[in-house]
Amino acid sequence: MKKRRPIQLVLMLLWCVATGITVNAQTPTVTHEFSIQQAVDYAKKNNTQVKNALLAIQIQEQENRGITAAAYPSLGVSGSLTDYIKVPTQVIPGDFVGQPGTLLPVEFGVKYSSSAMVQLQQLLFDGQVFVGLQARKTSIEFAKKNVDVTEEMIRVNVYKIYYQLVVSKTQIELLDSNISRLEKLKHDTYEIFKNGFAERLDVDKLDVQLINLKTEKQKALNNIETGYLGLKTLIGMPVKETLVLTDKITDSDIKAGALADSVNYNDRQDYQYLQLAKKLNEFNIKRYKLSYLPSLSATGVYGKQAYRQTFTFFGKGDWYDISYVGLNLSVPIFSGFGKDAKVKQSKLELQQTVNNIDNLKLTIDNDVETAKLKFNTAIQTMDFQKKNMQLAETVYYQTKKKFEAGLGSNTEINTAQVDLKTAQTNYIAALYDAIIAKVDFLKATGKL
Fold it and tell me: What is the spatial distance between Cα 191 and Cα 214, in angstroms, rounded to a whole number?
């Protein structure tokens, strides 16, 4: 038995290790395959700024409940128990008992007294509460519009990063094509070198270009990986999860959508937001103006009272009813000009909002015209760079044929290769610019 224990321990250890490896292997990697709309929808649910904006709606709802509570009846119960350690003493003239000219001390009251009351109060009119009830709906709309503004801001950034990452696939494809083309050229040049029709220097130059291209590809891949991390953070996705972008974009996709000649301000979420802010400012002015009016409330009380010389409230003894109803009128007369200051302050705040709205109109007009100009320029540049890239590719292949036929020099084909690489880089940059310009234009016109 003793000889078999070490073997059993080893087998058990191996089983544990194998089990651990199996468990790790079975841990799935979460993969998300997102179109642009799915990425935007994911961000709406998981981006921290959007979540906080949604919580702000719930906070406003609770504030509205507090405003509504002021208009509801208030019901309360109270009780009291008093033990006069020394019953209060009063004095009466001695004339009452045939002792003129004297004052006689008399204890009025009893040692113990108790009461239990139920009180109902109802606010009948209060100008500020009345306006608060009117403003509840606008307050919720204001909070919801803040969500729309926040979502639009997130959506703009998601669109830009998403499509830049999509275009980066084209960049990698072009780099791979260049690497493949240069490797073929290097192979052909090496064969020519072995036959004595080229110099070793020509082969070395191609090696340098090839290393530079591979380095550039690695940098591009690193930038793409950083872009994916940025997109995951933006939409609220854990960085360890895998994100796959399913949409593609072409030149025609970027061009799609006619440019609007004019813009409707109400299409912009930020304009709608300021309009609601203006409405709330107007409610604020009304609220402070109505604070000059009297407030009126009604009160109803019912209760029981008892008096004892000894503590016998839980035994026999009389309890006396007490009940009354009443109206409470509060008339403000002077408050040190505080209310007047509040009215004037709220009017100034309204004017600030109006000024912001006027300035936003100017900003929107400028945004639309600027975005339209940049978009048109970006489209023209993209078309030009695409044609230039195609022409550079044609020139390269013609130069390569001349070189292979012994009619061209190594300098010519190197120049053609550099020109093609430059044209491809310019085309990718033009694609990026066109995407950004398209998103900015849609944002400016409120169509994103």
Answer: 23
CA 298 – CA 326 distance, rounded (Å): 6
Question: How many CB atoms are located within 10 Å of the residue 379 CB?
Answer: 19
Helix (H, G, I), strand (E, B) or coil at 247: coil
> What is the DSSP secondary structure assignment for residue 319, as one 8-state letter?
-
Q: Which of 24, 19, 34 is nearest to 241 (CA)?
A: 34
3-class secondary-structure state, position 344 = helix
Provide the token pair at 96. Answer: 């009452």
63 and 82 share one domain = no
Rounded to two decimals, the pTM is 0.80
- Residue 121 makes CB contacts below 8 A (sequence gap 6+) with 73, 74, 75, 76, 297, 298, 299, 300
Question: Is residue 426 situated within a structural domain?
Answer: yes
Domain match, 111 and 254 both: no
Asked whether the predicted pLDDT for residue 3 surpasses 60, the reply is: no
262 with 182, same domain? yes
- With beta carbons less than 8 A apart as the criterion, state whether 405 and 189 touch: no
What's the Cα-to-Cα distance from 79 to each of 49, 310, 316, 318, rounded to whole Å? 49, 19, 19, 17
Is residue 230 a part of any domain in this protein? yes
Q: Provide the token pair at 352.
A: 């600030």
> 144 and 91, same structural domain?
no
Does residue 442 contact residue 263 with C-beta atoms inside 8 Å? no
For every residue of 123-149, DSSP letters joined together read EEE-HHHHHHHHHHHHHHHHHHHHHHH
Show the tokens assigned to 12: 């058990």
The set of long-range contacts for 24-31, using a CB threshold of 8 Å and a minimum separation of 24, is: 29/241, 29/242, 30/238, 30/241, 30/242, 31/241, 31/242, 31/243, 31/244
Distance between CA 265 and CA 33 in Å, rounded? 36
Find all residues with CB under 8 Å of 438, minimum gap 6, and list them: 254, 257, 375, 378
Handedness of CA 178, 182, 208, 392 (dihedral sign): negative
- Pull the structure tokens for residue 264: 């409707």
Q: What is the pLDDT of residue 185?
A: 83
SS3 20: helix
Q: Kindly state the tokens that stand for 420.
A: 């093609």
- Per-residue pLDDT averaged across 90-102, rounded? 78
| Residue range 380-403: mean pLDDT, rounded | 90
